[in-house]
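Recap from last week: sequence in, structure out.
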Amino acid sequence: MVSIHTRFAAAIVAVGLTFGSVFVVAAPATAHDELISSDPGEGESLAVAPESVTLTFSGDILPMGAAVVVADGDGRDWVVGEPERRDNVVTVTLEPDMPEAGYEVRWRVVSEDGHPISGLIPFTIGDAEPLERAAAEDTAVDTPDDEATTQSQSTQESAGAMRLVLIGAGGAAIAVAAFALLSLIRRRKTGTDDGT
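Predicted structure tokens:
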């Protein structure tokens, strides 16, 4: 009878420790969002100039820090106005009458986990050659909201650290409770043995 109680208490301790460790390991395993499609697509050759550029991401995009530039070989930006964001889709309108040439979409957004992501999408209009860039040229897009982005990252990282602390504390509390239960059962067992 006593050995059943002891085994039961040991099982509770094991479950508590397992429960806590699983959540501690699983909590930080989140991936950043990524670009899943664009229009025009990477390396696409268009017969006529597009009216807009659309970027679709794997998750919702935060409103701050979104920037899109559509540049030609001279560095001219053909985007009109600010990017429009709807959930996981960012769209920019382009100036009309873009000439036949190589272009590059340079984008930077803040994914829903608070981290900035960026990339390049080359495309051409007509029979033009793809846009060639110097290898050392910076691929990032400057945004006026870098400070807000940094603050958002810091807030997300703090929240993640606090979540880990709380999960660890919960696991420890379960283990302590199970240990107390085990001690109580042993004391009762000792009292029973002494009385018999």
